[in-house]
Design goal:
Layout: H1 2-7, H2 10-20, H3 42-56, H4 82-91, H5 105-118, H6 128-135
Helix pairs in contact: 2-3, 3-5, 4-5, 4-6, 5-6
Length: about 150
């Protein structure tokens, strides 16, 4: 519940609603010729700053003090597995809210591409199709290292 409380601050709700009101502006950079994963999509950065950093902190190093249960995203080896990362954001787990009910596959792809490329050294982008496959349950559980 702590993670949900982080997101539900007045400022957090306002920012989240502003982002969700215009999902078309937050498309992942999946098309050839667009920014690469090493140049994170600005939409993913905006989503991280407006939603994720309230709990995971601006430097993505997780919570300290009272927020010690919030894991670091920076330097997180689990994020090398796209399926794990997508599943965790889409379905939630423990204190991590289920963002699949609030974000589009394109938005999840954008924010994960940003987090994996900016705070880690995973240069391959997360595609909207990869998120949609997990969101639609078309990826067999045996094919991913995710918590189910």
């Amino acid at each position: 519940m702590k993670s949900i409380a982080c997101m539900l601050s007045t400022a957090g709700v306002s920012a989240t609603l502003a982002v969700l009101a215009n999902p078309a502006s937050l498309a992942a950079q999946d098309n050839p010729g667009n920014k690469t994963a090493v140049e994170p999509a600005s939409e993913g950065k905006e989503l991280y700053e407006q939603i994720c950093q309230a709990c995971h902190m601006p430097d993505a190093k997780g919570g300290a003090g009272a927020g010690t249960g919030v894991p670091a995203l920076a330097g997180n080896a689990h994020l090398s597995d796209k399926s794990f990362a997508i599943n965790r954001v889409w379905n939630g787990n423990g204190g991590m809210p289920r963002f699949g009910a609030m974000l589009t596959p394109s938005q999840v792809a954008g924010v994960l591409t940003y987090v994996r490329g900016h705070f880690n050294s995973y240069p391959d982008a997360v595609s909207e199709a990869e998120v949609a496959a997990i969101a639609n349950g078309t990826v067999p559980k045996a094919d991913c290292n995710c918590a189910h």
